[in-house]
Amino acid sequence: MELGSLDGPSASQDGASGEPKDGRGPPRLPNSIQRIPQPTHSIDSHRPSMCYPSGMKQFFSTLPKSVLAFLALTGGILFIVIGDPPKTVCDAQMDLFQKDQQTFLYEDPKSKAEKKTTKFDRLFEHCKVTNAPGGCFELFQLTKRMLDGLNSVPVSCRGEVAGSTKVKNALSLMTELMVRLAWGSDSPGTVAQKFGWLDIADISLYCRLKAAYSDFLGVSAWEGLREKLLKGLPNADQYPRSHVWDHSILSENCSSYP
Which end of the chain is more exposed for a tag (fewer CB within 10 A), N or C? Predict the structure, then answer.
């Protein structure tokens, strides 16, 4: 038994309609097959609108133009304030201090050096290496100017300035440097020799550093630094604490200096 053709009815007939399929026209669908009705509206009409709700549109359309302008202006100001809040008095004071110390405590933005350093860092290292008045003169002078700038900061803003790492490090490092310069490589032979080569102006600078450290960072912070420096002096562990205290500049009464 031969299998029927997979193409359905023969070419002479179209099945149920019985009409010839000779290429003179398209075959008609059987009466039993109904055409699917086409939609009467676009599918896109069911997509949600990306615009504002009609109620909001109507609300804004009822507002006078002056009110709309006021709302737009207020929104713009609010955006600016949130993005760039106004500076406080203390912020302004800190900005002034940073500008004044731009070439000393802070890196020079105009410097083209590959490894940027501050003038404070360079002068500090030079003073340590030379360990002499000539090698430390410029560092001492610029440190005095830094202290003048700190003294001009209002008391209410000193806590914010003290939070600056640059300021805190400068006060700590300079205090330690002067204490070690006065002490030397070992304990001075007598109490009268506890200043080393430092003169009256240098001792006055040390006292100013001590006062600034206490004012900006607190008395307890100064006491902690003082004890750390006492223990860290060369060969300090070879002497009683009372000896180290009496023979170091830390024991000097700063009320005698301007």
Answer: N
**pTM to 2 decimal places:** 0.66
Residue 13 lies in a domain: no
Q: How far is residue 132's CA from residue 134's CA, in Å, rounded to a whole number?
A: 6
HEC secondary structure over 180-246: HHHHCCCCCCCHHHCCCCCCHHHHHHHHHHHHHHHHHHCHHHHHHHHHHHHHHCCCHHHCCHHHHHH
Nearest CA to 227 out of 218, 236, 217 is that of 236
DSSP class per residue in 50-80: -S--HHHHHHHHHS-HHHHHHHHHHHHHHHH
Q: Does residue 60 sit within a domain?
A: no
Sort residue 184 into left (φ over 0), alpha (ψ -120 to 50) or beta. Answer: left
pLDDT in tens, the chain (258 residues): 444 444 444 444 444 444 444 555 555 545 544 555 555 545 444 455 444 455 666 666 676 766 656 666 666 555 544 545 556 888 888 888 989 998 899 987 777 666 778 999 999 999 999 999 999 999 999 999 999 999 998 888 888 888 889 999 999 999 999 999 999 999 999 999 999 999 999 999 999 999 999 999 999 999 999 999 999 999 999 999 999 999 999 999 999 897
Tally of domains within the chain? 1
User: Domain range holding 129?
Assistant: 119-256
CB under 8 A, 24+ apart: contacts of 255-258: 257/200, 257/203, 257/204, 257/207, 258/204
Residue whose tokens read 């020799």: 193
| 41 domain residue, yes or no | no
